[in-house]
Amino acid sequence: RLVGEMQAGVEGDMSPRQLTDKQVVRLHQLLHEVRFDDPKGDHLSPAGEYNLRLGVMKELAPDMIATHQGDVRVFEGHAFIVEAAVSVGGRDIKPGINVHRFANRIPLLFEGGSDVITKTALKRINWASYKINQ
After folding, report:
1. Phi, psi values for residue 85, rounded to 5°
2. Scanning 38, 80, 91, 118, which has its CA 20 to 30 A from the CA of 74?
3. Which part of the chain is the DNA topoisomerase VI subunit B transducer domain (predicted)?
4. If you compute the radius of gyration of the chain from its CA atoms, what whole number of angstroms results?
């Protein structure tokens, strides 16, 4: 389809070195206009809520845990799935609410407590109504 949109003299099997300056500019414009379908995410292998829950329970032995696996999302052409676990208590861990985040099995590491999830969990939820002391 791109070759068809190009100016005359461009073939599908041409080397980029054979393009004129004018053709390169036109190709650049076309690539900015074209829209490719987002990847489906079939190639991803998330840990899954069940395995995430088991892993946190095995390693931290929390008093309470909740897990969630999001849907496939795409950012700049890259598909990802975010998985999160929220736990309270546990061995060798700071008291209060602990948030564990993963994207495609990779921990999302950044300054703890500065992310939206933690701020929401600490500020917008009335934990006292659940008889939980932060």
Report:
1. -130, 140
2. 118
3. 39-134
4. 24
Specify the pTM.
0.57
Burial of 120 (0-12, 13-18, 19+ CB in 10 A): exposed
Q: Report the alpha-carbon distance of residue 110 to residue 125 in Å, rounded.
A: 23
Residue 7, number of CB atoms within 10 A of its CB: 11
* Full pLDDT tens readout for the chain, 134 residues: 777 777 677 887 888 888 888 888 888 888 888 888 888 888 888 888 999 999 989 988 999 999 999 999 888 788 888 898 989 888 887 788 888 888 776 666 555 566 666 667 777 778 788 777 76
| Distance from C-alpha of 55 to C-alpha of 10, rounded to nearest angstrom | 56
Number of Cβ within 10 Å of residue 65's Cβ equals: 20
